[in-house]
Automatic annotation (TrEMBL):
This is Activator of Hsp90 ATPase homologue 1/2-like C-terminal domain-containing protein. Gene3D superfamilies: 3.30.530.20. It comes from the Bacteria. It comes from Symbiobacterium thermophilum (strain DSM 24528 / JCM 14929 / IAM 14863 / T). Pfam families: AHSA1 (PF08327).
Length: 158
């Protein structure tokens, strides 16, 4: 996705808690170094639910590339949120004419129906996340991702 913002602005949006909470999740712990925390809390009132607690950066190449482990929402906890089954996300930021091209690659999916459903859900969620990043950096209007559905107490994407 093309974001009409300088590469360093996009970088800081991903690597500073006070910035990522403007467009991704309402609370975060971010320590952008290999082994550092990449923890997003989609329900800050209950930080044990719908979060990436325990996820860490696996690679940090300043201004160009981030990689981190990933947990899905509670809806997929039985499938993908065990320490030996975490997926991996890589975000690249490339300066281009008119801004920065941001690419998200989510890998490490398992086999079976549960994994297929999680993968479909995440494909839609990552589109929403990138749209929110774009909105926050271009117009100051981020849309926090994956807010819990209060009726069902599970993550939803609208």
């Amino acid at each position: 996705m093309l974001v009409k913002a300088p590469q360093e602005v996009v970088w800081w949006a991903w690597t500073r808690a006070e910035r990522i909470t403007q467009w991704f999740a309402p609370a975060a712990t971010i320590d952008p170094r290999p082994g550092g925390a990449f923890e997003l809390f989609f329900n800050p009132a209950d930080r044990s639910r719908d979060c990436t607690a325990g996820c860490t950066f696996t690679a940090v190449e300043p201004m160009t590339r981030l990689a981190f482990t990933w947990k899905g929402p509670d809806l997929f906890a039985a499938v993908m949120n065990h320490p030996d089954r975490l997926t991996a996300v890589t975000v690249t930021m490339e300066p281009v004419e008119g801004g920065t091209r941001v690419t998200v690659v989510h890998a490490g999916w398992g086999e079976g129906d549960g994994w297929a459903e999680a993968r479909r859900w995440h494909a839609a969620a990552w589109r929403q996340v990138l749209d929110s990043l774009k909105g926050a950096l271009e117009s100051g209007r981020g849309d926090l991702c994956c807010a819990p559905d209060e009726d069902q107490n599970q993550a939803t994407v609208e």
